[in-house]
Amino acid sequence: MKNVLLFGYGKMGSSIARGWIIKKLNFNVFIIEKQPSLIKIANNDGFKAYENMERLRENQKSKIFDIIFLAVKPQQMEETVKNFFKFNLHKSVFVSIAAGLSFSWFRNNINKEVKIVRAMPNLPASIGFGVTGYCKSKNLSEVEDKDVYALLSAFSKVIYLNNESLIDNVTAISGSGPGYIFYLVEVLSQIGVDQGLSIKDAKTLARETLIGSARLVETSNDDPKTLKENVTSPGGTTEAGLLVLESKINGLYPLLKSTINSAVKRAKELNSHG
């Protein structure tokens, strides 16, 4: 049975690991996490968790780690990779979910021959409804690629990217996307309150409209544009609202495009400052 080492048991790290539990994957999983409270949670979830590599090696001396998942923030990565200089991990495949940090960054900070996968999951992975875009360096074997895919697909739908540059776009759209969606629900709720609805009713209307619409997009044979047209009667209320949202000057498209471009720019800045 192959061994997986997960660095970080925060929101994303724990979501990923719990997906592995649900799918009952045939891997031994070990956790490195600095915070005692998160170590306790990882242990309660059924994992062997340690505060650092030294403590892990004291207890698991003979273990070879086939895949090392890096579920830490970009700003923490430089400190994290220092752990690898003390141990012989040159055969391991590294999987990073840190936004912005490129293959070149890992080659410069671990070694030039590092086997590296960049993956961008999103928060719905915590309930088994995530989506992950990933790209890989060319030196992974077919077996290693299959193992990585199995680990990623345990907690999300998976999209392979054949160009590393696209990972920043995935980060901006689906990685950060839940934040945009949550804000949409927040704004719709607040507008409802402003127009006289109770807070409870406004939140329910906004939330259930999002959930139902998303479910319809998922299950319908029609594309979103057709679904939009189906709900839009000529001269009706939906058409009146869409006239504002579809404005080419200050409508939803230019606003979201600016939003995505800003997130992509930040992802690139994280790499340059890494």
N-to-C order of helices and strands: EHEHEHEHEHEEHEHHHHHH
- Count the DSSP helices: 12
Strand ordering within the main sheet: 3-2-1-4-5-6-7-8
How does the major sheet shape up?
8 strands, mixed
The helix/strand class is alpha/beta
Task: Tell me the number of strands.
Answer: 8
Shape label: elongated
The low-confidence runs, each spanning 5 or more residues with pLDDT under 50, are none
Q: Into which percentage range does the β-strand content fall?
A: 5-15%
Average per-residue pLDDT, rounded, comes to 92
Looking at the overall shape, the CATH architecture of the largest domain is 3-Layer(aba) Sandwich
- Could you tell me the radius of gyration in angstroms? 22 Å
Q: Structurally, how many domains make up the residues? A: 2
The CATH superfamily of the largest domain is NAD(P)-binding Rossmann-like Domain
- Can you tell me the CATH topology of the largest domain? Rossmann fold
| Intertermini distance | 34 Å
Helix fraction by DSSP (H/I, runs of at least 4): 40-55%
Q: Which CATH top level class of the largest domain fits?
A: Alpha Beta
Question: Could you give the topology of this structure?
Answer:
Blueprint: E1 2-7, H1 11-23, E2 27-32, H2 36-44, E3 48-50, H3 53-59, E4 67-70, H4 74-81, E5 93-96, H5 103-109, E6 115-120, E7 130-136, H6 142-153, E8 156-160, H7 167-175, H8 177-194, H9 199-219, H10 224-230, H11 237-245, H12 252-272
Parallel strand pairs: 1-2, 1-4, 2-3, 4-5, 5-6, 7-8
Antiparallel strand pairs: 6-7
Helix pairs in contact: 7-12, 8-9
